[in-house]
Write a structure and sequence with these properties.
Layout: H1 7-14, H2 17-30, H3 38-52, H4 56-72, H5 82-92, H6 96-108, H7 113-119, H8 168-171, H9 182-185
Amino acid sequence: MSAPQTGDTVNDIEGSEDAAQTLLALIRAAFPHEGVPGTAYERAAATVQAAAEDTTWMRVKLAQGLDSLQALAGGRFTELTAQEALPLLLRVQHTSYFGFVRQTVVVSLYEDEEVWEALGYEGPSFDKGGYIERGFDDLDWLPDPRIEEYDGDPLVDVVSDLPRAATTASTRGAAVPAGQSRARAGGTGRQVNSSSGNGSKGATS
């Protein structure tokens, strides 16, 4: 499986039973569920292969990727457990072919009704009137919610010291145009006295 990737070699890989079994083992290791039947994984693998056929580039990348994965495992990837396969999947997780497999399987596998049944998902509820009358809380793999009444010291309400009628305008001065003093702006509402050189007093602003 580790021969140079000539055109003939790629065609041999992508059409072989070995490649199909490698893909199936990859999907099982990447999405491990003890209760999910093998038929669901097989349908997911078939979906990946069909999607790869849409473009020659992805078809070749998938074939080459599966071949390299077998090479990393010494030709025995299909014999590995999910735990043994994990380090190899981490090594190829950023490759284009693995990303293609992952994004395809994450949709196709979890849309499979056999997977729903294995995982305890009852499927869409809209056309059945929702879950309220269909055992919405019967998932036995979730812990019971903890409901406790508060029995500590009474909580103290925090109330602001500002009067209710306080506004921005009443708690800070009006804005003054740039380059002007408050006396020139005339927005303070008080008398401003200024001394001039001859001792005269300024007028009320």
